[in-house]
Design goal:
Keywords: Cholesterol metabolism, Disulfide bond, Glycoprotein, Lipid metabolism, Lipid transport, Membrane, Signal, Steroid metabolism, Sterol metabolism, Transmembrane, Transmembrane helix, Transport. This protein has 45 helices and 27 strands. By secondary structure, it is α+β, with helices and mostly antiparallel strands. The strands form 11 sheets. It has a 4-stranded antiparallel sheet with strand order 16-17-13-18, with helices on both faces. Strand 19 and strand 20 form a beta hairpin.
Length: 1289
């Protein structure tokens, strides 16, 4: 069934608008004194009766002037029913009137929703066709001969500008909901004023093209000598109360103007202006706060420094008895290189560290445990490895999740639930396969040339030909595009391409006029028959072209070809599998054939299919395999180097720790595999990020503890037996390692509260992997240290322990742990610590770090939420180019549906008038509000009024739309006259005396209540409407346009469970645009739900992926607060020191805030990945703080001396074992082929490592030296062998 061009039929709406017959060559110009005897006076006709017919059957009027005629009563009633302004005599016969009536019925469905517009429009053609004063404003200027009969060939139509203005003003905003556009685009070619509308109606069209076959010249002033007067029938305003239109069709109506406008959602941006400088309030506030803090700090510093100097001068004559006095000095000189915990057992001093309850029992546990492990290394190693291997058995159930909706959408997501409701009650949104064919910039000016050329269109035909030939193998059957594509009218695919202007047939290219036909269709796509698509609907150029500005389609620089493919709710169904099979063949065709063909033409081609993202995510699993492997090898090499002693050629093969480093890396991998195995065993699917990132993270975290443990053992005196050294080492670093590891586990675990599944699962896997790694370090790795030290002391070669050689190693190096401190340790104690003890340095450090923290708070407000799709894909993915081109060329946004649940259509309910937007609807109805919101797209993000099945249904059953809802005498549905069986589909002939001659309209006005159907009428006729095909005689048929807009299940009860109204978002280019558009749509729906007392929600395909960003800041702050709070509680419980815990809390908070500031500087967006990184940064940052803080608390002396001691013992381990190990692993990730690793794991973790290093080894020592807690190291009597408890904070 062909949807004819409405405007071309409009232009023959009246029987006087007759088409010039072929072969009529003669033209006669008629004046007021012509031989025909034409007269211009009252009750006189300029055209009367029918004098011929065209070859297509359309009748032609006679150009003969004659007096008006009084019609019989029946004809008079018919005329007045359509033309109430015409009474008495008329200038049309009954056949003429029937022709008029049959032709205006094609336009009525467009305008019937606005009675004022429809009345004005009908008056124009009623006066032209039947007015008894016709000769006063119609002058036949040319005639032609058809079968020896003269027929009208051209006229002047004199009509006042006032009527034209009134007509245009009443119709200019009337919507045609089916196409989300104005009705004037169809019946007026998008005219912007009444003169353009008149010009469109009156232009002379070439043969076989739409438009008037003769010139109709509209004039506003008649010659004075002619005796003619311009037609000036009164017009109705669209705001007229008797013929009032809805607010959607008449926004200027007083009723609509009094309606409160929708609230504007502007970002609140407080700012202050100083002359030409404009500053944000938060920036100004933080600047003032910084000045105040620095000033207070400087004042306190000078005062404190002055008092300290006075105390120093007064103490010079006093014995050195403070803080341990001479005894401590002697001990410090004698045992400078001994660990702090060794002082606890120093018999000559009676020095003892007063530990907290928890630390005391932990030290006691590690002392006994270290001795036991050193005595039973084989047992401990075997049991620990066996347990982890047992967990690894779960890997047999290992599965990887690659479906985007399962990775990035939480199961409790409101948007996901709404999508599920939409898919199950209406229909799943179609799958999209897309090609973007674009030109390349000119070498001269760099501008993009137009894509609309003959060569490019022919190339597009070649591409389409290859696409049509795709045959994908699915279970032995060959699948083509036609098998899976969306077919609105169940016949042809709804392919969105400019080739639709040629009916997708290359043979029509020359027949239709080539490129010129395309340019013509770009301006008349709604009205030209030859521009109609194969799926019988106009093709909006904005869906098939890209890279143009405004409505200048001719300058478009890209063809956009979209293949909508049917989707299915059941992802396992055959329909979806067939589509996936075809999509794979489609992508392969583009890569193998289309890309080379397009590149030869100096064009670009980007492409995508619905399954592309999922397939590329699968490919990503191998994209960075080499990068990850290199990262592990580099870290392994560094571990082996840093664990070993200072390289010496004579003893390197014994002192190296390659085998120990390799064993440590294997333990890390075992912890990761054990974590994955346990979760796989309980049915949790893994992700690609888990497989690639967690091993690296756990390795970076695990290496720290390895270095700290090995270095602690090395620091023990050689005189002690190995089990004593192991025991003392665990006592020295065990509590701080435990504290750091527990903090990391808790921080990772907090990430499991993130709603995004990929990040939640990542956090769960990482938390367990870090826990297992810690347990393996204090069990298996300690045993490996025992074996390695035994190997070295027995002079066996590293990596080949079976080989024993004689060496002077022991003598030259004075034994394991007996050598002098390393270069880094000497630097920390001799240079770094003394430099930080200078008051000037302290002031500068505090000022800089506080300044950067406050600046980061200001910067963090500029961090945008979102996650670019192209970031999660490999850099060499073809989707990278597609996303770039889609953002650059697309000029239409994603479809937006407003879904109404439980719509009560019964006559007792107000719901119908609360939803619709035609006459009699409430001014604040849903569709009127959508139309009003579309007027402010910059805040509402709604581009167009909604396509309303309800409006079109109410118009379709309206008695005025007499060509739409019709019934046979037996009460069954009767289609329009231009559809079968009324019209032969084969020959196209329509016989008005055929099977449909007795069809009548479904209802008379008396059958309806205020133009609204009763409950029974609504229930009976809704299925008719949804199955009715649109055509020229009734463009409001709902089949195709609204097939999936209404859920008919259970609607017989008077309630429609689900129905949707379709519109479009504005073009969305940035992630923040998607987030803001979703927020605006949800706020709009919430407001309408409250106002209408109905449940309304918005739905678009991207909503479920972007819902998380609506509350991402709240999620981030809550999780960070929980993570920092958890670390604070752990520190407080273990150390029983509020002072220590508060300092660690301060440093952690500053690191996190600074990291967010760096995110703003690097344009890193806030999303679930970055939130997980921020939460994990809390745990990782603990390592930079806790070891230094613990060493400081157990050192003796004043604060500067204790900072020096802490940096001397733990500073080197923090730098080499924590900072450098993480730095080495992070740097390798910059070579990743996947942008997500570069942005979120290289950049963020590099920033974290640098910030952690600076805060841990620069800021923290300064803070401790100024505000650190008292020492736990006291001179006491040697107590019993039990932990002492300090109650001090």
């Amino acid at each position: 069934m062909k949807l004819l061009l409405w405007i071309s039929l409009l232009q023959v709406l009246y029987n006087a608008s007759i088409i010039r017959a072929e072969g009529s060559d003669s033209r006669l110009l008629l004046s007021s004194n012509a031989k025909s005897g034409e007269r211009h006076s009252e009750e006189y006709c300029a055209m009367y009766d029918i004098c011929g017919a065209r070859d297509d059957g359309k009748v032609l009027n006679c150009p003969h002037g004659s007096p008006s005629v009084k019609p019989d009563d029946l004809l008079s009633q018919k005329i007045q029913s359509l033309c109430p302004t015409i009474t008495g005599n008329v200038c049309c016969t009954e056949p003429q009137f029937e022709t008029l009536r049959s032709q205006v019925q094609q336009v009525i469905p467009f305008l019937v929703g606005c009675p004022a517009c429809l009345r004005n429009f009908l008056n124009l053609f009623c006066e032209l066709s039947c007015s008894p004063r016709q000769s006063l404003f119609i002058n036949v200027t040319s005639i032609s001969k058809v079968k020896n009969n003269l027929t009208v060939d051209g006229i002047d139509f004199y009509i006042t500008d006032a009527f034209g203005e009134g007509l245009y003003e009443s119709c200019k905003d009337v919507k045609f909901g089916t196409m989300n556009t104005r009705a004037l685009n169809f019946i007026g070619a998008g005219a912007q004023n009444f003169k353009e509308w008149y010009a469109f109606i009156g232009r002379r069209a070439a043969p076989s093209l739409p438009g008037s076959p003769y010139a109709i010249t509209f004039k506003s002033i008649a010659p004075e000598s002619s005796g003619m007067k311009p037609m000036n029938v009164s017009t109705y305003s669209c705001g007229d109360t008797s013929l009032g239109c809805s607010c959607g069709d008449c926004p200027s109506s007083p009723v609509c103007a009094s309606t409160a406008p929708p609230p504007q959602h502007e970002k609140s941006s407080c700012s202050v202006r100083f002359g030409s400088v404009k500053a944000k309030c938060i920036d100004l506030t933080l600047t003032i706060l910084y000045i105040m803090l620095v000033s207070m700090f400087l004042g306190w510093g000078f005062f404190h420094r002055k008092r300290e100097r006075n105390q120093t001068l007064g103490m010079k004559s006093m014995p050195n008895s403070l803080d341990g006095g001479e005894v401590h000095s002697v001990i410090r000189q004698k045992d400078e290189n001994l660990p702090m915990q060794m002082l606890e057992d120093s018999p000559q001093t009676g020095n003892r560290v007063q530990l907290s309850i928890v630390q005391g029992y932990m030290s006691q546990f590690y002392r006994r445990y270290g001795t036991w492990v050193a005595r039973h290394p084989v047992l401990v190693l075997s049991v620990s490895v066996a347990v982890v291997l047992l967990l690894c058995l779960g890997l047999i159930r290992f599965k990887v999740e690659t479906r985007p909706e399962k990775l990035w959408v939480g199961p409790g997501s409101k948007a996901a639930e709404e999508k599920k409701f939409f898919d199950s009650h209406l229909a799943p949104f179609y799958r999209i396969e897309q090609l973007i064919l674009a030109t390349t910039p000119n070498a001269e000016d760099g501008k993009l040339p137009s894509i609309v050329t003959e060569n490019n269109i022919k190339l597009l035909f070649e591409i389409q030909k290859k696409v049509d030939r795709i045959r994908a193998n699915y279970s032995g059957s060959m699948i083509s595009l036609s098998d899976i594509c969306m077919k609105p009218l169940d016949q042809d695919c709804a392919t969105q391409s400019v080739l639709q202007y040629f009916q997708m047939d290359p043979q029509n290219y020359d027949n239709y006029g080539g490129v010129e036909h395309v340019h013509y269709c770009l301006q008349h796509y709604t009205s030209a028959d030859k521009c109609m698509s194969t799926f019988k609907a106009p093709l909006d150029p904005s869906t098939a072209l890209g890279g143009f500005s405004g409505g200048n389609y001719s300058e478009a620089s890209a063809f956009i070809v979209t293949y909508p493919v049917n989707n299915a709710v059941d992802k396992e169904g055959n329909k979806i599998d067939k589509a996936v099979a075809w999509e794979k063949a489609f992508i392969q065709l583009v890569k193998d054939d289309l890309l080379p063909m397009v590149q030869l033409k100096n064009l670009t081609l980007s492409f995508s299919s619905e399954s592309s993202i999922e397939e590329e995510l699968k490919r990503e699993s191998t994209a960075d395999a080499i990068t990850i492997l290199i990262s592990y090898l580099v870290m392994f090499a560094y571990i082996s180097l840093t664990l070993g002693d200072t390289p010496r050629l004579s003893s390197f093969y014994i002192s190296s720790k390659v085998l120990l480093g390799l064993s440590g890396v294997l333990l890390v991998m075992l912890s990761v595999l054990g974590s994955v195995g346990l979760f796989s065993a309980i049915g949790v699917k893994s992700t690609l990020i888990i497989m690639e990132v967690i091993p690296f993270l756990v390795l970076a975290v695990g290496v720290d503890n390895m270095c700290i443990l090995v270095h602690a053992v090395k620091r023990q005196p050689l005189e002690l037996p190995l089990e004593g050294r192991i025991s003392n080492a665990l006592v020295e670093v065990g509590p701080s390692i435990t504290l750091a590891s527990l903090s990391e586990v808790l921080a990772f675990a907090v990430g499991s509260f993130i709603p995004m599944p990929a990040c939640r699962v990542f956090s769960m896997f990482a938390a367990l992997a870090v826990l297992l790694d810690f347990l393996l370090q204090v069990t298996a790795f300690v045993t490996l240290i025992v074996f390695d030290f035994l190997r070295a002391e027995d002079k066996r070669v590293d990596c080949v322990p079976c080989l024993k050689i004689s060496s002077s190693y022991a003598d030259s190096d004075k034994g394991i742990g007996g050598r002098r401190p390393g270069l880094l340790a000497r630097y920390m104690k001799g240079v770094h610590a003394p430099m930080l003890s200078l008051w000037g340095v302290k002031i500068v450090v505090i000022s800089i770090f506080i300044g950067f923290a406050l600046a980061s708070i200001a910067l963090s407000t500029r961090v945008e939420s979102g996650l670019e799709q192209k970031i999660v894909l490999p850099r060499d993915s073809y989707l990278q180019g597609y996303f770039n081109n889609a953002s650059e060329y697309l000029r239409i946004g994603p479809p937006l549906y407003f879904v109404v649940k439980n719509y009560n259509y019964s006559s007792e309910s107000r719901h119908t008038n609360q939803l619709c937007s035609i006459s009699q609807c409430e001014s604040d109805s849903l569709l009127n509000e959508i139309a009003r919101a579309s007027l402010t797209p910059e805040s509402s993000y709604i581009a167009k009024p909604a396509a309303s099945w309800l409006d079109d249904f109410l118009v379709w059953i309206s008695p005025e739309a007499f060509g739409c809802c019709r019934k046979f005498t037996n009460g069954s549905y009767c289609p329009p006259d231009d559809q079968p069986p009324c019209c032969s589909s084969d020959t196209g002939s329509c016989d008005l005396s055929g099977v449909c001659k007795d069809c009548t309209t479904c209802f008379r006005h008396s059958d309806l209540n205020n133009d609204r159907p009763s409950t029974a009428q609504f229930r009976d006729k809704l299925p008719w409407f949804l199955n009715a095909l649109p055509s020229a005689d009734c463009a409001k048929g709902g089949h195709g346009a609204y097939t999936n807009s209404v859920d008919l299940e259970g609607y017989e009860n008077g309630v429609i469970q689900a129905s949707s109204f379709r519109t479009y978002h504005m073009p969305l280019n940035k992630q923040i645009d998607y987030v803001n558009s979703m927020r605006a749509a949800q706020e709009f729906s919430s407001r309408m739900s409250d106002s209408l007392k109905m449940e309304v929600f918005p739905y678009s395909v991207f909503y479920m992926f972007f819902e998380q960003y609506l509350g991402i800041w709240k999620t981030a702050l809550i999780n960070l607060a929980i993570a920092i709070g958890a670390v604070f509680v752990v520190c407080l419980v273990i150390t029983c020191s509020l002072w220590n815990s508060a300092i660690i809390l301060l440093v952690l908070a500053m690191i996190v805030v600074d990291l967010m500031g760096v995110m703003a500087i690097l344009d890193i967006q806030l999303n679930a990945v970055s939130v997980v990184n921020l939460v994990m940064s809390v745990g990782i940052s603990v390592e930079f703080c806790v070891h230094i803080t613990h060493a400081f608390s157990v050192s003796s002396g004043d604060r500067d001396q204790r900072v020096k001691e802490a940096l001397g013992t733990m500073g080197a381990s923090v730098f080499s074992g924590i900072t450098l190990t993480k730095l080495v692993g992070v740097l390798v990730l910059c070579f990743s082929r996947t942008e997500v690793f570069v942005v979120y794991y290289f950049q963020m973790y590099l920033a974290l490592v640098l910030l952690g290093f600076l805060h841990g080894l620069v800021f923290l020592p300064v803070v401790l030296s100024m505000f650190g807690p008292p020492s736990r190291c006291k001179l006491v009597e040697k107590p019993e062998d039990r932990p002492s408890v300090s109650l001090q904070p």
